[in-house]
Amino acid sequence: MQAFRAAVFAALFITGTPLLAQDITLRSRDGGIELNGTLLGFDGEFYRVETRYGELTVDSSGVLCDGVGCPSLTDFVAEMRVSGSATIGDVLMPALIEGFALRNGLEAERLQLGDTGFRYELTDPAEDRVVGRFDFRISSTDAGFADLLADEADIVMALREIRDNEEALASEAGLGDLSHPNRSRVLALDAMIPVVAANNPVNAVSLSDLARILSGRLSNWRELGGPDAPVVLHLRNAESGLSQGIEDRLLRPSGLELDGEIIRHAGNAALAEAVAGDPFGIGLASYSEIGNTKPLYITGSCGFQLRGRRAEIKTEDYPLTAPMFLYLPARRLPALARDFLAFTRSAPAQIVIRRAGFVDQAPEELALNLQGDRLANAIAVAEGEGGLALLQHMVTALAPMRRLTTSFRFEPGSVRLDAQSRSNVQQLARSLEAGEYDGRELVFVGFSDGQGDAGANLDIARKRADAVRSAVEQAAEAADLDRIGMATEAFGEAMPMACDDTVWGRQVNRRVEVWVN
What we know:
By secondary structure, this protein is α+β, with helices and mostly antiparallel strands. It contains 15 helices and 24 strands. A hairpin with a 2-residue loop joins strand 3 and strand 4. Helix 2 crosses helix 10 (about 345-355) and helix 13 packs across helix 14.
């Protein structure tokens, strides 16, 4: 009876099989307590009931249900509604659903639902019945958040972080704080790759020139060393998270806005195909789908060159990395849906992600001698004896170690980790809890931009490293930290990832890396 009372008064939000509102009666198994109300939902384990006490959640294992609205406990079908980004929904999520089904001995059948939706029915062949229905609506990041707020989706697929107005509306709707680390996760990484036709003579573009193209201030290829011809800009549609990410990452930090003539495309493949056939075109394409276009180097006034390759994207050294988010409101999903979400973080799921053409989240270790671009850039900008001495100290300290592909960066003008880094904290904490680094030492290494006094920058970098280490330790609640060495180090402005002459470049340079012995 005590367990029943605790369940009744647990004020949780759940979602499950959509049910018509029906009056039901829930009774404790000893008959001592009876609760009347309107059934709002059932997730296979818990009833969600509107009662005179408000909306309550009750554990089905402790009660008996009476009434025409009572769901079947034996033939329950888990349901999950997913809406948002076409980049995530067209290929990656179907591949993960099918991989999850195969891993768990289930059969997955895809059914088309109109022009923009589909359903996966998961069947257990041992019981010869459907155990799950996962419905997908493929549209845009904007539409995904709108569906969530309209109670037409349980999970949002997003190619950008949630915005302040969406976060406020979600909180008002009782969906929880969607900026909390537990309310979002990075499924995989994509990147925005500047691409041109194969016969275009231009091979590189700086972030500042790219921003000028996007804002309509650079309109002739001659300014980039190309022919005297107009620049034709190709982008995804305005509702696309990839397109919005371009504005968030490239334009807003410099106070610029999209302007000029833009050719919009509904999908990544259509954009790549159009640029490949346009001798004067330039587009920002998804890393997973550049087609027959030629990718450009990212360069800068300080002489840096960065390429949109898998390793640089995974470490977020490439400046136009685009995390692929799943946003999860404060609702209880059915057990099968929770199992699927757990699968997306597993080692087999990382293989599926790579095969789908995206960059996975499995940590990898990189030796210092495999980071030629970074070291070359660092040597190019080292100033005076002090700069070279710091660089020598860094190389000596890091040479015996290997760098994890997990990095941490901060929101603009803030000491708060950005959404990708908050997800990285949870990921690294889970690895510590699983004992993956037992007997080894993790060193959190802080870096800064090059603005201001070098000594002050070194101090700031060390404080950032301490903050990230503390966040990981707090998140790894179940880890035996006595089995793991943990330390911090800082090298200030010794290894910049981008030129310091732009707001965006300085933001990228302020980071914390993890190195392991």
